[in-house]
Each structure stands twice: as C-alpha cells, then as structure tokens.
C-alpha cells in the first residue's frame, strides 16, 4: 500500500481482548476480503489507507493493530501515543470481551486523553446467521456508549457491514476537528492583531 513516503495524517489504534476480530476488521478495510483464521498479532502490526473526507480532502489513515493478550499489554500502551482515534473492539457473542472494554478505554485515556474513542461490536454475521447467540444486548451497548459520549457500531468483517462506515466516521470527524482548530487559531490571531493596532 503506497502511503506517500510513509506519511500518516490520522493515527488510529485498534484495541480489545484477544480473538475479538481486530485483525479481521483491518483485513476487510484494507484488502476488502475476509480470512476465516487469522494469526494472533504479536505486539502490533501497521497498515495504511488513503480516504477522502466528507469535505473532499484526502487523508492517510495509519492503523496500528495491537495484540489483545495480557503479555503484550504494557507494550501496547506505547502505540496509544499521538493516536487521534481508537477503535475498541468486543465480540457481541462473547460477554467477557465486553467486560474488558472499560479497562481498555480507561487505559487509552490515561495515555492519550483527547483520543476519540469508537466502540466496535464485531462478528455481527454470527448472530445474523444464527450461528452464535448474542451475549451482549445492543441496548446495553448503546446505553454505555451514550453515557461516555462515544460512537458505537456493530460490524461484520465477513460481510463488510459497517466496516467502511466506521473508518469513514473517524476521518470525517478528525477532519472536522482540524477545521475547527484552524478557525479558532485564525480567530485568536485576528484578535491579537486588533489588540496590537488599537
């Protein structure tokens, strides 16, 4: 994937318990395909893709896929630094992966306070196709997401449902933030000029 001399405009980290489907999510987004059995991520793996925001500007999204096992947990924290957004994954057919969600979010915010958090419920196809039972009620997820003011999407890496929408939301919101910051900086500069000349 060509990334313009490895330039990354928006750094995204993907975190969550082991086997919730983080690598499959990235595989679907970057390569637009699905592999049934993905290898366990050792430490972290990097991918990048260029997206066009709602406003028409292009951004290169750099994605760090982090290991979910306890033995890599302290190492994974290094990848939070300077992340503009984090996708915190849980498997909707696995209650314990949902229970681990809070600790991932609090750990992220300790390191990178202003990082935008997106909650991603994975493996929606297993429930839709009747292969597995849903263990985490959607209303419970929505209630928690509303409470901490973050976006929640349920995805399927197998069918592609909501995968592109998730990454598009990140790009659109980050670009919007950039324009707000730029406008407020311009406003401050103009106010300073007025103060100096009057």
UniProtKB/TrEMBL annotation:
Keywords: Nucleotide-binding
UniProt GO MF annotations: GTP binding; GTPase activity
Matching Pfam families: Ras (PF00071)
InterPro entries for the chain: P-loop_NTPase, Small_GTP-bd, Small_GTPase
SMART domains: RAB (SM00175), RAN (SM00176), RAS (SM00173), RHO (SM00174)
The keyword Nucleotide-binding is annotated on this UniProt entry: yes
Domain of life: Eukaryota
Similarity remark: Belongs to the small GTPase superfamily. Rab family.
Protein's UniProt name: Uncharacterized protein
UniProt source species: Nezara viridula (Southern green stink bug)
């Amino acid at each position: 994937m060509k990334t313009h001399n490895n330039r990354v405009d928006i750094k995204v980290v993907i975190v969550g318990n082991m086997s919730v489907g983080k690598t499959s999510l990235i595989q679907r987004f970057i390569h637009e395909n699905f592999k049934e059995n993905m290898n366990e991520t050792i430490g972290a793996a990097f991918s990048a893709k260029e997206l066009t925001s709602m406003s028409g500007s292009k951004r290169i999204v750099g994605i760090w896929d982090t290991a979910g096992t306890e033995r890599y947990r302290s190492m994974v924290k290094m990848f939070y630094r300077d992340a503009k957004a984090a996708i915190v994954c849980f498997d909707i057919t696995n209650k314990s992966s949902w229970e681990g969600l809070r600790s991932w979010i609090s750990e992220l915010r300790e390191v990178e306070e202003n990082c935008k958090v997106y909650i991603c419920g994975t493996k929606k196809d297993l429930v839709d196709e009747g292969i597995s039972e849903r263990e985490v009620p959607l209303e419970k997820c929505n209630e928690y997401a509303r409470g901490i003011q973050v976006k929640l999407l349920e995805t399927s890496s197998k069918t592609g449902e909501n995968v592109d929408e998730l990454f598009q939301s990140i790009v659109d919101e980050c670009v919007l933030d950039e324009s707000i910051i730029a406008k407020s900086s311009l406003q401050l500069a103009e106010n300073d000029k007025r103060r100096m000349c009057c």
